[in-house]
Amino acid sequence: MKYIHWLLFTALCGLFLFMFLDSLAYLFPYHEQQNLFLFSHAYLDTFLSTPGKLGEYLANFIVQFFYLPYTGKIIFAFILSLLYLFPVLCCKQLTGKHDPLHLAVLPPLYLFVQFESLGFEISWATSLFCCFFLLFMLSLLPKKIFYITLLPFFLLTSFALGWIYPAIAILICVVTLLSALFFSRFGKNRKIYIGGSILCLGIYAAGTFYLFVYSYNMRERLLLEAEDHLKKQEWEQVLDCTRKYRGENQLNDYFRNMALYQTGRMPYDLLNYSQSYGINSLFLPWTGDAQQSRYGHYIYEQLGYLNEAQRWAFESLVVNGETAPNLTNLIRYNIANGRPEVALRFIRVLKQSLFYRKQAEEYEKIAYTGQIRGLKALPHAENKKARFSNIQNLGPELIYICDRDSSNQMAFEYLMSYLILSNRQKQFVENLPRIQAFSYPGMPPLYQEILNRYQQDQQ
Amino acid sequence: MARYIILYTLLFLTACQPGRVSPDRQTDTSPVLFPDYTDVTFPCNIVAPNFLITEEGEAFYTEIGSEGQVFFSQKSRNADVRIPAEKWKVLTTATAGKEFYIRICVRQEGKWIQYKDIRNTISTESVDPYLVYRLLYPGYELWNEMGIYQRDLTSYEVTPIIENKSAKSECMNCHTFCRNNSETMMLHIRGKAGGTVISRNGNVEKVNIKKEGMNNGGTYAAWHPEGRYIAYSVNEIQQFFHSTGKKPIEVSDLESDLIVWDCETNQMITDSLIYGPEWMETFPAWSLDGKTLYFCRSKAITQQTPLDSIYYDLYKISFDAQNRVFGKPECVYNASALHKSISFPRVSPDGNYLMFTCSDYGNFSIWHPESELYLLNLQNGNIRNMQEVNSDNVESFHTWSSTGKWFVFSSKRIDGFWAHPFIAFFDPKTGIAGKPFMVPQKDPEFYKTFTKTFNLPELIINPITENEHSLKLIRNKLLSSSPD
């Protein structure tokens, strides 16, 4: 029983790590893409200038390691588990006793369940970790000094991290301490002690399991995984995720249709899936919705309609800040659009990060070439009358792209899909001859069927 | 013993000085600095203009001095030069009204190369010590983090006046001061919970500059010199996004008119001559005596009007403040005849000049690379392109300092995308400006990595933070959802 806390700590570590590598693995890339930690004075200053923001700085420092497949998960599992170990060690140091109820196990379990939510702030874990760590270090001092330093500890950590964190840390330590003092008397009876401990741990485990399953959002997971695969251009996996999705979701349809095109199945399988949002399953019309701002650029990038992709990326920068995807998108679009000076400013920011530095240096080398692999901007005719985008409706833009670049197969298939979903048979038939620019093995059955139907209607 | 102490002290002190460099070679070319602080006139109260030497080299030696006196020297492997505040203070005091030099040597392949000295001037004139601007990411419609900030130009201190860090909150725009004085100012916030906060000598009021029957609310504002009236343009603005090419956006008014707001009675004054469907009037600016209102005017447009055929001329109309009546509009500069368009007229504090932005069409000059600053001499009617301050990229929003000896303006000359504040000296006698310089920052690389754009820079003589009570009221009223 002497080392039960080490055993529990190891078990927690193992459990968290297993879940992070399995059921919760999808959350790590999401968090990593929300923040970009920069090694610069200016970045640090933004956190130091406001009291209580240091916890966020530490959280962002940790989150950058989520970029790596294992390291970030190990670090975070370790931090969460230490939230149990530190108060226990602190209690042992101060009283020489263990808490038989193992109350200190509750905060890491609570945070673990909370982590399932996308809105969870990692700074909760890092700030509490700092407080517990400092408390533990102070507990190594003589008791009298420990109690004297509690107030300065509270004031300092309140200023640096926010008052709530040291308050919670002290509260947990006090509760653990009282529990240890009060219940340890039952420890003399080994059976009662073990039985009580097992019962408590069983209740905690059952409660955590229930809350975990209750809070688990499979649809959210599938969407995040689909987007992650989309970024990596793993189109079969995107299709797989979107297929598993239960219910209606515009973003799911949007991702799936992209994957359908990329896997060459759009003209064949478009109507084999529910297109619940009609033409809006193909793109995200601009509604000024801040939440959508990070997704709109995908379709335009693939269509080679870079001005519109760039517009979405800038809007996403406004809403989500200087995150790695925002910066890399803006770098790529500005290089491809012949604005190297603009790209370079974003490159300089990206170079201050740990894991994107090399990528930024690669972009720096090619900034003035105007060439980005996989990106081709629609050619601009200098002397022609200016044309402005229709940001509400993709249809006119698809016709424009097809007119400007008849070899753009994606624009063609999207145009056909757009006309099918909007039930414009006449326009569909009028635009069908564009198919001759592409080498289909034969007329796709879906297109043939609509053509036949139209011809029958005409007769 | 005392002799040794003096000797050791001297040895110690000289050891602290970076050793002077004996150049192996001299070159006639000037070194390139970022920001470009060459041939510039600085106000005597400006903070040290730290810079970066953009020449390639293994080591860098910088010496700043005047008339044989060296005020600052630095030998470093780093190319950034940060001038200590106290040394800069000594320099500005000693060289006020004179030139000083920046001597730069760069070690390349083991040899020191001395570049041609850079010559700058410290003016005896000080600039208004505070610069107020809006900072935002260069987006188009959404906003998340946005704020109005006050920069102390005599130090690097930046104070947030009001920040909006919530996507639900509304967009803040247009801060305007009466005669560069923060005691009489106006701030506006858009949206349903928005409104205009007017602060006059400690009295803070939130008003709605949009009355029933009006299509649009107050947008661009100008304080009457007496501080009682504010002229507003009421605009309906729309954005248009280019399908291809480097230019991302066009912004155009679909409608605009002028009104004058009486801050004492909270009443609106206008006239069919400046409020009606036939013309679009915008960007009001008062003359020194407050008897004339300058503005930009274009023919009203239809949906078919091509954006590149909208031209704004410079107009003026007389205003009788006592009887609250307008005269008849008169054209001051018929820019449309030259296929040019005018925005942001600003009368100098002595009333002798009017500075404006001139572009090829439209009035949203911040997205027009060709837009440049022009100067109209109100005494003789001469108009000239201010080539001494213009660049091959955007020059747009500008305001005079309270003395009229300096002005600040937005320029996108660094990379064509982000607007930065530039300050330039102005000689009211000759009407000639000096070479503009970027507002100094503590980190010389600041402008290379900062991804927010500086918007609407305005110089003020006293800090907004001086009157804490007013500022608190302004913040509360601006962020409250109550219309009043």
Automatic annotation (TrEMBL), chain A:
This protein's name: Uncharacterized protein
Ranges annotated as spanning the membrane: 67-89, 124-141, 153-186, 192-213
Keywords: Membrane, Transmembrane, Transmembrane helix
Keyword Membrane: yes
UniProtKB/TrEMBL annotation, chain B:
Pfam families the UniProt entry points to: PD40
Protein name: Cytochrome C biosynthesis protein
InterPro entries associated with the record: 6-blade_b-propeller_TolB-like, WD40
Coiled-coil intervals: none
Cited Gene3D superfamilies: TolB, C-terminal domain
Domain of life of the native organism: Bacteria
SUPFAM superfamilies cross-referenced by the UniProt entry: DPP6 N-terminal domain-like (SSF82171)
